[in-house]
């Protein structure tokens, strides 16, 4: 919205700053951060009054979680509200990729909100049936995949770009949209599974978002793509504004989600943020790199899949409990120990993923 101020610029004054994505990204970050600090406490108070007993705690979960009973959920509303406000204020609203990511974020946030509402209103952990959530997620992701294809350069449409092998493109044809659907839905649910301890999900989400934001900015500039020898996707640089808002809103949320958490993110936040990250990966043609950057989320999701399949086949468990962060809880690791170590792993994987920009 503020980009229109560039029309008042003669090229050498203050208003000219609004032409620069980096300046507007800084503004988006600060706006979202202030939003989080200003509205965090009031939102938590409202959620506590409306929800009463707060998020239901699983009966079969780790024993240490029962002390968290009564903690309100749907804290993702704070993050989503912050990033929406900052994006609308600072991003160019004529950019198709910005609207693509916003569409996925809001749609998955709506699914998550419905799930959270069902849980707190009925005071059980069932929520919206999983098949319904998946069906809606795939529908949203299918639209997003088609949307991205329409705005990718012709030479990149329906193509899968491979990291390291910079000149290699794998033509997927009509299978690109199902592939994009898997990336986005898988990303949303992987982040959702990771959100099981105070502060565990939000920091890796911010780390991954920052990394994808750098990639989006790089592939959206022809000079950077020429130097790095990666594929140029015009318009993706504007996604950095959205990412900056996500990070600012995420930090504002972490202020209240740090152990012991005053509020949980809930599916409202985890599905929205996971879907957003998957959508950014599809938009920037970095789906494979996203699997590296978000490796922590991949491992969390795989631990659940392996546990379920192995138990159905043998009646035995691979892990003491899935997702894998609960396995370490069962082994006696303290919650802060698990959280911080997982943050470190997320940062290492993000740096590896970022390195693929230059590795040939």
Structure commentary:
The protein has helices at residues 21-51, 76-90, 96-122, 130-151, 176-194, 202-219, 222-228, 239-257, 266-283, 287-293, 295-314, 324-330, 335-355; strands at residues 159-161, 169-171. With 360 residues, the chain is mainly alpha-helical. The chain has one domain (2-153, 163-291). Strands 1-2 form a two-stranded antiparallel ribbon. β1 (159-161) and β2 form a beta hairpin. α6 runs parallel beside α9 (266-283). The radius of gyration is 20 Å and the shape is globular. It starts with 20 loop residues before the first helix and ends in a 5-residue tail after the last helix. The model has no long low-confidence stretch (mean pLDDT 92).
Give a nutshell description of this structure.
With 360 residues, the protein is an all-alpha fold. The protein has helices at residues 21-51, 76-90, 96-122, 130-151, 176-194, 202-219, 222-228, 239-257, 266-283, 287-293, 295-314, 324-330, 335-355, and strands spanning 159-161, 169-171.
By DSSP, the count of extended strands is: 2
- SS-based class: mainly alpha
**Backbone shape:** globular
User: What's the helical proportion of residues?
Assistant: 55-70%
Task: Output the helix-strand order.
Answer: HHHHEEHHHHHHHHH
Tally the helices. 13
Portion of residues in beta strands equals under 5%
User: Poorly predicted ranges (pLDDT <50, ≥5 residues)?
Assistant: none
Total separate domains: 1
* Major sheet details: 2 strands, antiparallel
Q: How are the strands of the largest sheet arranged?
A: 1-2
**What is the typical, i.e. mean, pLDDT?**
92
């Amino acid at each position: 919205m503020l980009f229109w101020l560039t029309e008042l610029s003669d090229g050498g004054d203050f208003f000219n700053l609004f032409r620069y994505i980096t300046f507007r990204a800084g503004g988006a970050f600060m706006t979202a951060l202030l939003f989080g600090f200003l509205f965090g406490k009031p939102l938590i108070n409202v959620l506590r009054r409306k929800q009463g007993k707060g998020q239901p705690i699983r009966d079969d979960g780790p024993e240490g979680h029962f002390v968290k009973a009564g903690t309100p959920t749907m804290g993702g509303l704070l993050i989503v509200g912050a990033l929406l406000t900052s994006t609308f204020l600072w991003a160019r609203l004529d950019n198709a990729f910005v609207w693509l990511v916003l569409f996925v974020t809001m749609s998955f946030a709506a699914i998550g909100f419905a799930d959270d509402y069902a849980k707190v209103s009925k005071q059980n952990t069932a929520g919206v049936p999983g098949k319904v959530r998946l069906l809606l997620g795939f529908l949203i992701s299918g639209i997003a995949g088609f949307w991205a294809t329409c705005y990718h350069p012709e030479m990149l449409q329906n193509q899968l770009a491979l990291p390291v092998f910079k000149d290699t493109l794998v033509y997927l044809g009509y299978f690109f949209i199902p592939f994009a659907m898997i990336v986005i839905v898988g990303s949303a649910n992987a982040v959702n599974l990771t959100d099981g301890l105070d502060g565990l999900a939000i920091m890796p989400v911010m780390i991954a978002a920052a990394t994808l934001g750098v990639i989006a900015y790089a592939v959206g500039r022809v000079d950077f793509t020429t130097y790095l020898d990666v594929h140029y996707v015009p318009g993706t640089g504007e996604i950095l504004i959205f990412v900056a808002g996500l990070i600012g809103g995420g930090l504002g949320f972490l202020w209240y989600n740090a152990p012991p958490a005053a509020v949980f993110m809930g599916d409202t936040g985890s599905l929205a943020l996971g879907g957003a990250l998957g959508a950014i990966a599809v938009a920037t043609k970095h789906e494979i790199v996203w699997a590296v950057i978000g490796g922590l989320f991949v491992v969390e999701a795989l631990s659940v899949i392996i546990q379920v399949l192995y138990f159905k086949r043998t009646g035995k468990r691979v892990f003491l409990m899935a997702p894998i962060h609960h396995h370490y809880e069962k082994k006696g690791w303290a919650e802060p120990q698990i959280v911080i170590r997982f943050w470190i792993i997320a940062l290492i994987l993000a740096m590896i993923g970022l390195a693929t920009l230059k590795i040939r």
